[in-house]
Design a protein that fits this description.
Elements (H helix, E strand, L loop, with lengths): L7 H6 L9 H8 L3 H8 L4 H17 L11 H11 L7 H5 L4 H13 L9 H12 L2
Helix pairs in contact: 3-4, 4-5, 4-7
């Protein structure tokens, strides 16, 4: 018998920012270390650098990558942009409009950091097996 693990509210909120983040959350999930900056600096232009860094840090915080409907809080934009020396955070709009760039960045982040998409084989099966074995 299938079970529902998330409430309706949790399902609606999944993969979305809910308001501004506090300093602890920003420091923990949105800090860019030397490796993060090196990968980000490989991107051409400020919009791509900011977009790549936000994809990376959003995946760390939300467990998902940015989508077109995701609204990034101003505190997150500014925190990441300051670390990159970017003063115009409005360039994110042009990044989000580039359909080919975002998937390429997601793939690079997944490859480099070992992130997996659990909606694809064999990861979906492995996750299901792991969850099932823990529920016995």
């Amino acid at each position: 018998m299938p079970r529902e693990f998330l409430t309706d509210t949790q399902r609606r909120q999944y993969g979305r920012f809910e308001g501004e983040l506090d300093e602890t959350q920003l420091t923990r999930y949105f800090h860019l270390d030397d490796t993060d900056r090196a990968l980000t600096n490989n991107c051409r232009g400020y919009a791509n650098q900011l977009g790549f860094a936000l994809q990376l840090t959003t995946a760390r915080f939300l467990g998902t990558f940015l989508s077109e409907s995701t609204q990034v809080p101003r505190s997150v934009l500014q925190f990441v942009a300051i670390q990159l020396g970017i003063t115009n955070v409005d360039s994110l709009g042009s990044y989000m409009n580039r359909k080919a760039t975002r998937p390429a960045h997601r793939a690079e982040i997944q490859r480099h950091y070992g992130y997996r998409d659990f909606n694809t084989p064999p990861w979906r099966f492995r996750l299901s097996r792991f969850l099932y074995s823990g529920s016995l």
